[in-house]
TrEMBL record:
InterPro entries: Uncharacterised_pept_Zn_put. Its main location: membrane. It holds the Pfam family Zn_peptidase. This is Metalloprotease. The keyword Hydrolase applies. GO terms for molecular function: metallopeptidase activity. The keyword Transmembrane helix applies.
Amino acid sequence: MKWLGRRQSDNVEDRRSISGGKIAVGGGVIGIIILLLNVFGGENAKLITPVLEQMQGGQTQTEAATPLSKADEEMGDFVRVVLADNEDIWGKIFAEHGMTYKNPKLVLFRGSVQTSCGGASSASGPFYCPADQKVYMDLDFFEELKTKFGAKGGDFAIAYVIAHEVGHHIQTLLGTSAKMHQDQEGKSQAEANKLSVALELQADFYAGVWAHYNQQNLDEGDIEEALSAANAVGDDAIQSKMQGQIVPDSFTHGTSEQRMYWFKKGFKTGDIKQGTTFEEI
C-alpha cells in the first residue's frame, strides 16, 4: 500500500510503550483459541474469553514493557495513515447520504489494555469497543496470523483488519449493532450466532467498500493479502485447524468463503446499500 508521506490521523493512541502488564508466557493452545475466538470483531466472543483466560491463569506471568523500536514507530505511522484514509472515505460517504460521520479512535497496545468494555489481553485479537467507540489492536497478532494460520501477511492485511473494525464502528453509528443484539434476545444459540455472522460479514463488506474508494493507494497484490487474511480467519478454517471438525451452528464470524465473498462484493460495488448480509445469511 502506498502510504509514505501521506496524511496521518490524530485519532491514534499509541500505548505500546506503557501498556503490557501481565501476559501469559507461552500462551499455549488456549491462548491461541482465545485470540481466534475474538479476531476481527470480538463483541460476542468477549463473553467466552474470560472463561478461557481463567483456564489459562495457571501459566507463568511476566511483566512486559518494551520500548518502541524504529520499526514499531514506522508501523504506528502506517496505522495512522490507514485510519486517516478511513476517516476521509467514510466522512465523504456519510455526507453523500445526508449523515455526519464521527471518527473513532484507534488504540495500539501490547500485552493487555483497559477499555470501556472491560479489560482485554493481546490474546483477544483486534476488536472494537462500542462503549468508547475505539478500535484496539496489538500488532503482534498479525505475526501469529501469518505463522500459525497461514495468512499471506503484508501491510494490507493490517489495513483490512483496521477497515473491518471501523466497519463495526459504522454499525454502531447506524444502529445496526444495537438492533442485532436486540434481535438476538429470545433466540436459540444457533439463531443468535447466525445474526452475529451477519454482523461480521457486513463489517467485511464495509472493509471492501473502503478499499474500493482507496484504489489509487493500493499496490499490486494488496487485495490478495486482504483475502488471504479473510480466508485464514473463517470459522470453518479455524475450527478445522483447532479441533479437527467443523460445527456450522457455532459459527460467529462466517466461513472463509463468506468472508472473502463479502469483502470482494464491497470492493467491487463500493455501494453501502449492497451490504445486505442480514437478508442473505
